[in-house]
Amino acid sequence: MAKTQSVRASLDKQPHEVASMFDGVARRYDLTNTVLTAGQDRYWRWMTRKAVAPRPGEQILDLGAGTGVSTVELGRTGAWCVAADFSQGMLAAGQSRGLPMVAGDATALPFADNSFDAVTISFALRNIADYDLALREMLRVTKPGGRLVICEFSTPVIPVFKTAYRTFVMKVLPMIARVVSSNPDAYVYLAESIRDWPNQRRLGRRVAEAGWAGVKWRNLTGGVVALHRGYKLGS
Ligand SMILES: C[S@@+](CC[C@H](N)C(=O)[O-])C[C@H]1O[C@@H](n2cnc3c(N)ncnc32)[C@H](O)[C@@H]1O
């Protein structure tokens, strides 16, 4: 199978490198995800939707939405959901989904203050160099009383599983990606960025420091993924 690009970001997460890396994985992004996670991605998205709990008539921002695969799940509820991302390639790959899509950077969102009932971000916060700024931007565009849900890779909580998982992420995952992905080098970055990412407690502290109230988290799949939640004070 022909590969389209070989572009990977480094851990300083320069925005232009991150955006072109995702342009390169876009063509087979959804398939690669499902293969690499053995279908767990569907469970994580379902749990994210349950945590966001969108209601018909609400306006929901799915940030770092990529191809819109996470947005579609949220839209099942009848809420109006918009997918925002700064990779034109990812947005283009998801265009057939017929979702409202906006090109924009998470650190300078093209939305007015207090626009959304809920903001959610799945597997994207980890890719943003200044994620404290992104958390503050998400707070700015959320209505008072509105909610935040972050779905992100995290730190497994069972010690023996932690070791096996680290081996899988660092060694096996890039090998599988070489067969499935349109930009396998991106999955070396994925492995490194997961290893480098703060654990549940440290991320929770950063979310609270950005101004979100009532920050809590729960582990999915033994802490492979964590859902962090918070809300914007006011009514
Ligand atoms: C791993 S994908 C996640 C896509 C989707 N949310 C999902 O659950 O599969 C991460 C996405 O975040 C986007 N992203 C990374 N940094 C961003 C930024 N600063 N602003 C907007 N989007 C960003 C990338 O372009 C990419 O599409």
Automatic annotation (TrEMBL):
Any one of the GO BP annotations: menaquinone biosynthetic process
Q: Which Pfam families match?
A: Ubie_methyltran
The answer to keyword Transferase applying to this record is: yes
Q: Does the keyword Magnesium apply?
A: no
User: Which reaction does this chain catalyze?
Assistant: a 2-demethylmenaquinol + S-adenosyl-L-methionine = a menaquinol + S-adenosyl-L-homocysteine + H(+)
**Cross-referenced CDD domains, in alphabetical order?**
AdoMet_MTases (cd02440)
- Spell out the protein name for this chain: Demethylmenaquinone methyltransferase
Q: In which pathway does it act?
A: Quinol/quinone metabolism; menaquinone biosynthesis; menaquinol from 1,4-dihydroxy-2-naphthoate: step 2/2
> Which PROSITE patterns has this protein been placed in?
SAM_MT_UBIE (PS51608), UBIE_2 (PS01184)
- Which residues lie in coiled coils? none
